[in-house]
Amino acid sequence: MGVAHLVGTIVGIPGFMLLVATERTSMTGWLLAFPGAVSMLAAFLAALVYGLRPDDKWDAQFNTRTEHRSRSGWTVIFIVIFSLLIGAFLLMTGLALSFQTYFESQVQAAKAISQ
Question: How far is 112 from 44, CA to CA, in rounded Å?
């Protein structure tokens, strides 16, 4: 799973930079930025899933060979809240930019037809 996040991020960063350089007109930029966005959102979702997992299930999966028992506290709650806020912000930003680009292209097409 970590390799998929890494590959998505490595592919997504040049795509995002290409979109910024071309003012969101590059199709290659969109195709490269999409895996990066999906990878980032999946990482924030994974942080939520791991953070909300009960301590017993966490220990059963990750601490089976040790005597250590987990005690999650407020730090985990704040990390989960922070992940939720950042993930929601990135999702809404991506949707807003996608819709803005779509509607701007429709306006340009309408102007070309009306001339």
Answer: 42
